Known about the structure:
Layout: E1 4-10, H1 16-26, E2 31-37, H2 42-51, H3 63-71, E3 81-85, H4 91-100, E4 104-107, H5 115-128, E5 132-134, H6 142-152, E6 159-167, H7 185-188, H8 193-209, E7 213-221, E8 232-239, E9 244-250, E10 260-266, E11 269-274, E12 280-285, E13 291-294, H9 302-306, H10 319-339, H11 353-371, E14 377-378
Parallel strand pairs: 1-2, 1-3, 3-4, 4-5, 6-9
Antiparallel strand pairs: 6-10, 7-8, 7-14, 8-9, 10-11, 11-12, 12-13
Amino acid sequence: MSMLEWGLIGGGEGSIIGGAHVVGARMDGQFTLAAGAVDIDPERGRDYACRLGVAADRAYGDWRSMLAGELARPEGDRVSLVTIATPNSTHYEIASAFLEAGIHVLCEKPMTTMVEDAEALVEIAARTGRICAVNYVYSGYPMAREMRAMVARGDLGRVRVVNTEFAHSFLADPSNDFPGWRFDPAQAGVSAIVGDCGVHALHLASFVVGQEVERLTADFARCVEGRELEDDALVAFRMSGGTVGRLWTSAVAVGHSHGLRIQVFGERGGLAWDQEQPNQLYWTPLGESTRRLERGAEGLSPESTRASRMMLIGHPEGFLEGFANIYADLAEEIVARREGRPPAPAATWWPTTEDGLRSVAAVHAAVESNRREGAWVDARPPSLR
């Protein structure tokens, strides 16, 4: 397969997420960074894009120039996919413009700040026949995919409870608001920690269990004085198949480094996975001792095996490979559509526009529940009720 041309919007020099996208997209040799508008400062952005290997005439000062420039090129010489790694409030305008132009999109989460905009992106993606994926990167980890496969084939029986955490301490110090826009409603939207980290945990719960969040109750806290949006939250939820859900997410959990964890409890056993130790999945069949499943070991599911690069146990893979797996899935999807064939079954688990819509709706539901002092509210978007 020839390399697909890829473009990056946002994620400029010094951006953790932007750097991860660059490494992840390139890791399997399926995408080449061909165009970019990577910084709010046009000159700084052009300079950095060129240092990343982008040709000078495709190192753009802003995303509108990038869209116009790419559309001016012959159809076979444009970017196939653009990644949007800008502040939340800009996602809808950029994503909708590129989709309407016939270019596939991978958008950082949350997909939009408003439910109505998320609904519109679902419609645009369907009408244009273009991909609008959302970067729920933790669903790209091999052992997260192993969990999903185990649940789907019935190893746990009916899933009773899913418990998730995404609690870190990066913003426990009041003087550290980097990046400051995360607590600015004009840029972040209606939520900070739930919209930034909680959505990852909620998506992972749905991804693994195979059910959607239908109702929830939430309690928000602003632990650091002066912040306009929450930096700690507790959410209880009920899922479409009857599973009970729990989520704690925080930016002030001193002692937690990253803090993404998930536990799944079924009739016939339980699973536990910690993103900071991503190569081990703990499986406890009912009435038996706990077993440690290792990434890369024999006997894992095809979906997990496809997501592993080093097929030897004890060689860790993690965050960057999670990005790479999302990009590998999208590359297979793009090429399969071009060739008029179905994609490889193990490459179909990339997070969709509908996943992004459900997450935005859940964030707004959590905000509404907190406003109503923890009332249970419908977490489904209007179009999916």
